[in-house]
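Page 47, continued from p. 46.
Same chain as before, 335 aa.
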Amino acid sequence: MSENPALPYPGAITDVTGIEVGHYSEARRPTGCSVVIARAGAVAGVDVRGAAPGTRETDLLDPSNLVQQAHAVLLAGGSAWGLDAAGGVMRWLEEHAIGLQTGHGLVPIVPAAVLFDLGLGDAHIRPDAQAGYQACAAASSQPPAQGNVGAGSGATVGKLLGLERAMKGGIGTASLSAGGCTVGALIACNAVGDVFDPASGRLLAGARAADGRRIAGTRDALLAGQSAQRLLPGANTTIGVIATDAVLTKPQARRLAQVAHDGLARSINPVHTMLDGDTLFALGTGASGKSADMLLLATLAAEVTARAVVNAICAARSLTVQGQTWPAACDLNPH
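Result:
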């Protein structure tokens, strides 16, 4: 198992045999994309809980529909513009002979989801097909970088009191093994809500008080009657991939994506709002050869999802764009 001693939780989604991860981070402004590749294909499912999603190929993953496997999943910034990066992922996969054989050439299956980060810098700069291609070129089975990279580059959290009082979000990963199977998660956290460590209940990042030096707490502010700022629907969103080496059917993959959202609910509050497009994908590589124990896999999936969110926030670092600074959890919680 891979470990990063600087973060609260060990492991990475790449601990799942058959999974590779690559990031592309845009140098001109904080945005980017991340790709999860399953070269041999993986049985795939998806569940969308947020009310403002930006997605691609999610209908294909319905258990009643034909295609059984995906070859990669793209997570990207740039709002709906970021979906363009999936074209670059397809091109890279085709060049490496990865895809669905149609008899008339390969068609790589690449579901995707995006988050909104257009409020940080020049909104005309966003992930494109070349960004998706470069993320694939950078992919490996090594533990991926976390924090301000890839799809987490421009992520922020705690925005219900206004973007100027938010904190830096990011991308994180974690994994667990039990019963002869491994489950891992890669989560890009750009939530409108605050982030907690469910193990301790500690508030890690969220809406800051007016002085900017402490976390006010969105939940407590709302319960006290404070009004949320007017925010653009969809200007947030937490997206991610849960992967396992267990043998899954397509209905089981969808169920795994569904229960993984419990991990978001444990670590983000509020979550699944009208302002978020929260979307999780599930992949089963089957590399362990073990049939799914869904009770165990569901427990692991929710737990690694929550842990990946916490790692994303703890790995994030402060960001300054055009004179505006978004501090990270390590700045306001130094210990």
